[in-house]
Amino acid sequence: MNTNRHGDIVQALADAGFTLPAPPAPLAAYTPALQTGQLAFTSGQLPLVDGKLEATGKVGDGPGLISPDTAREQAARCALNALAALATMLGDLGRIARVAKLTGFVASDPAFTSQSAVIDGASELLKAAFGADGVHTRSAVGVAVLPKDSPVEVELTVALH
Amino acid sequence: MNTNRHGDIVQALADAGFTLPAPPAPLAAYTPALQTGQLAFTSGQLPLVDGKLEATGKVGDGPGLISPDTAREQAARCALNALAALATMLGDLGRIARVAKLTGFVASDPAFTSQSAVIDGASELLKAAFGADGVHTRSAVGVAVLPKDSPVEVELTVALH
Amino acid sequence: MNTNRHGDIVQALADAGFTLPAPPAPLAAYTPALQTGQLAFTSGQLPLVDGKLEATGKVGDGPGLISPDTAREQAARCALNALAALATMLGDLGRIARVAKLTGFVASDPAFTSQSAVIDGASELLKAAFGADGVHTRSAVGVAVLPKDSPVEVELTVALH
Predict the structure, then answer these.
(1) What is the nearest CA distance from B118 to chain A, expressed in angstroms?
(2) Pairing relation of β-strands A137-143 and A96-107?
(3) Cα–Cα nearest to A39, from C120, B62, C37, C5
(4) Is residue A51 in a domain?
């Protein structure tokens, strides 16, 4: 639709140090992203890079745990993968009028309570990409464990033009 | 609306070995399903059969845990109960244009990381019922514990004709 | 829009013993509430009172745990804070046509399985405020840990007039 806006978003991501990855692999009974009416949903995205997790385990402070700083980077990667899923489905990130909702799940050591700081990695990437239109509602929660032992999982709901 | 389509969906479920259960019991301050605009939401559904859970506890590999295969069957039951809630509210499953979003919570042993395979039970039931229209976005997460010690809980968002 | 309806809702909350709090503090990369089309979303709300948690830790039965009764009161506070976020964003709670969806996360001791009773605190506050329009779909799940070691977190999706 608005190719220039798509280009602007990709450039804003590049300015923030991020490159939109290749679209996620096709799945069997579910799909990475889907439009219904003026909303689009993504599936929960893991921080996969070339199909692999760079870190696995629980987030927290202490030996054997993924540090909050690393987890924050992984959360940004989840958001980037969500944008890749939307870009593939929509054809053009410029069709996104507003990031409406983000849910961030952090696989957490029970003593770790800074899930918000971890999910800020995802929120800030979206703000970098879309400016004021990237400011969203969100929930951050600490869960027991995530698929493939991922430290973070992020899903998005966006409103479309 | 389209009674034949409802019948087709019920038949597709039967072909997959599932029978739409009786509607869930009425609740106090919340409701099993609700329509707003062209969307309908379900409450998180437990895999109740005649009001009872067939298995309780955490999912994982090892003694005292619910096996992934059993959990997968329980996830399918959650999805079936969500369809029963929608059928009761809508009157006709043929009104569902698309299954938009599924969130699946798996009560997980902290070492269990195959939540996706468990929730596939729910996703595959929806695909069996609705074909391409049953292919949805989804998040699968591993949580500490679920109501009534249920191994799985599934909620749906669907788009309506 | 309908100022009287807003007043009725505030009065209904007062009759149930609740006062709408001051709006939550502005945030950086996300926002407490947001409208898109005929839907509004809130961020996950903690049971903050004047910016502080009255109780922290995991919910359960036993020493060192937050009791289910206290957690239920905290869940009501989460819902109240969600209404405050919506009131600030919408200007008028009378614009809410229906509470569509509530997700309630309970930071749970692994042996605690009464998440539903905890989240009833939030559901009942919404029913007290909006009557039949406050009856919603919901999911209640038990998670490992929540931001700031909060016992409960609640998010809302509402449909607008």
Answers:
(1) 10
(2) parallel
(3) C37
(4) yes
Examine the pLDDT at A3 and tell me if it is beyond 60.
Answer: no
- Asked if residue C24 lies in contact with residue C52, where contact means CB atoms within 8 angstroms, the answer is no
Per residue in A85-101, pLDDT tens?
999 999 999 999 999 99
Choose the closest CB to C30 out of A38, A137, A144.
A137
Position A26 scores a pLDDT of 62
Q: SS3 letters for chain B? A: CCHHHHHHHHHHHHHCCCCCCCCCCCCCCECCEEEECCEEEECCECCEECCEECCCCCECCCCCCECHHHHHHHHHHHHHHHHHHHHHHHCCHHHEEEEEEEEEEEEECCCCCCHHHHHHHHHHHHHHHHHHHHCEEEEEEEECECHHHCCEEEEEEEEEC
All residues at 6 or more sequence positions from A69 whose CB lies less than 8 Å from its CB, including other chains: none
Note whether C40 and C86 are within 8 A (CB): yes
Whether residue C60 lies inside any domain: the answer is: yes
pLDDT bracket for residue C1 (50, 70, 90)? very low
Interval B72-97: pLDDT, tens: 999 999 999 999 999 999 999 999 99
- Assigned domain for B76 exists: yes
Give residue A11's domain range: 3-20+30-160
The reply to whether B121 falls in a domain is yes
CA distance A103 to chain B (A): 10
Contact A31, B135 (CB under 8 A): yes
Mutation target among C119, C145, C150 for the A interface, most CBs of A within 10 A: C145
DSSP three-state, residue C131: helix
pTM of the shown model: 0.96
Phi, psi for residue A74 in degrees, rounded to 5: -65, -35
Chain C residues near residue B28 by CB distance under 8 angstroms: 120, 123-124
How many distinct structural domains can be found in chain C? Answer: 1
Sign of CA dihedral A38, B36, C123, C4: positive
For the stretch C5-40, pLDDT in tens is 999 999 999 999 999 998 777 666 899 999 999 999
CATH number for the domain spanning B12: value is 3.30.1330.40
Pairing mode of beta strands C39-42, C152-160:
antiparallel
Which whole number is the average pLDDT over B139-148?
A: 97
* Residue-wise pLDDT tens digits, A50-84: 999 999 999 999 999 999 999 999 999 999 999 99
